[in-house]
């Protein structure tokens, strides 16, 4: 089958950050404002993720709408996993961050031992795709835990959190352009976009007394989802265009 993962472009990173923000605000909206609670929200989103992942795995090529729907749902489920550990089971953010980091490292190690590569440019077998999505889920869970650890437990706050994680992503990008390992810098940036998106989502949605702008989870989620849908529709149109017409 053809590679099932999109090319890494500026649009890729923009959609990724937007999807992580939706994961943060969407999970909060369903669990708190709709009143579903963490358990029901997690179960519902997990069921939707299984359906989306089934469709993604059975596709024979990259389909933008299917791929990014799966990413958004992974973002929400990853957020719910961390929130359940912290809020329901009382696991400290230090512990959950460490556990997810070890789990992600173990996934990468097993992936490399089996496939001899961690490159996203060769996701052309079912086994590689399963490794890929397992790693993606763990990056969201780790990013959520690390982001909450930085902004809440360590007291950075939402505004400073956005600045710090943006700076770390900038440093990672600079390292790549200076000749750093492409695979390593990609995955480091992928992990860091999760706490950046979470901090941005909290900054926009939370009330001013909590350090936010006060847009609310509904308006923030709708605004970001609208941009995601527009960008994915644009990518889908490019994918459907006959060869030779996309550059016109």
Automatic annotation (TrEMBL):
What name does this protein carry?
Membrane-anchored protein
Key words, A-Z: Membrane, Transmembrane, Transmembrane helix
Organism equals Trinickia symbiotica
InterPro entries recorded: DUF347
Which positions, given as ranges, span the membrane?
33-54, 66-85, 91-110, 130-150, 156-177, 184-201, 221-238
**Coiled-coil annotation: which residues?**
none
Report the leader peptide range.
none
Decide whether keyword Membrane is in the record.
Answer: yes
Q: Which domain of life is it from?
A: Bacteria
């Amino acid at each position: 089958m053809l590679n099932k993962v999109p090319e890494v472009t500026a649009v890729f990173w923009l959609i990724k950050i937007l999807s992580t923000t939706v994961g943060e605000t969407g999970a909060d909206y369903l669990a708190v404002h709709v009143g579903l609670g963490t358990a029901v929200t997690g179960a519902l989103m997990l069921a939707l993720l299984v359906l989306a992942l089934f469709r993604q795995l059975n596709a024979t090529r990259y389909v933008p709408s299917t791929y990014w729907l799966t990413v958004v749902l992974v973002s929400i489920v990853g957020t719910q996993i961390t929130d359940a550990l912290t809020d329901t089971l009382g696991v400290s953010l230090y512990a959950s961050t460490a556990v997810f980091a070890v789990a992600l490292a173990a996934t990468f190690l097993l992936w490399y031992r089996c496939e001899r590569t961690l490159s996203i440019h060769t996701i052309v077998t079912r086994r590689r795709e399963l490794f890929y999505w397992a790693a993606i889920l763990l990056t969201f869970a780790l990013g959520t835990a690390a982001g909450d650890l930085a902004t809440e437990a360590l007291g950075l706050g939402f505004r400073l959190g956005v600045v710090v994680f943006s700076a770390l992503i900038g440093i990672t990008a600079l390292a790549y352009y200076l000749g750093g390992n492409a695979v390593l810098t990609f995955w480091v940036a992928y992990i860091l976009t999760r706490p950046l998106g979470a901090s941005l989502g909290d900054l926009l949605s939370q009330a001013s007394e909590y350090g936010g702008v006060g847009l609310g989870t509904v308006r923030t989620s709708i605004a970001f989802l609208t941009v995601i849908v527009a960008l994915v529709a644009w990518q889908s149109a490019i994918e459907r265009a006959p060869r030779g017409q996309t550059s016109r």
